[in-house]
Design brief:
SCO1/SenC, Thioredoxin-like_sf, alpha+beta, two-stranded antiparallel sheet
Length: 181
Amino acid sequence: MKGFCQGTGDEGNTVKGPTIGGPFTLIDTEHRLVTERNLRGNWVLLYFGYTSSPDVGPEEVQKMAKAIDILESKQNLKVIPVFVTIDPQRDSPSQLRAYLKEFDPRIGGLTGPITAIRQMAQEYRVYFKKVEEDGDDYLIDSSHKMYLMDPNMEIVRCFGLEYDTEQLSEAILNEVNKIPK
């Protein structure tokens, strides 16, 4: 993986560490099976969150939607936004579809069995833990990571909460422009 997962980053540095990412099999909002192979050939912005997140989650999805819009409208660059739920018990395909439509219909949603979500989160080094609340209502503590994947589905950059929309779209554009056409 190139770049850093926190901080605004030293663009020129390359960090070699444990492999992040890997194969997955999940379900999209139309109940179709989706694997990493379905996304190959595209730049992908991957975010791990959940639809009942009270504040940070919606802000991150909004940031993702706006960054994608800036890249497409101003730079003519297509990046596929994908939201992976870390709360598959509550985030059914239809719940994900309704939630993401509120932000941008281009954002794809993925869910699946809890074991598949846990495995993917582990492969992508995404932390999440259910925090018990009242009855069936609970929150999830998570790392709120966003990943830029290249057309080979390899992680190029990881973005944390400290990026605003402009910084996010600019950093994505910089990474895409580093790759020879």
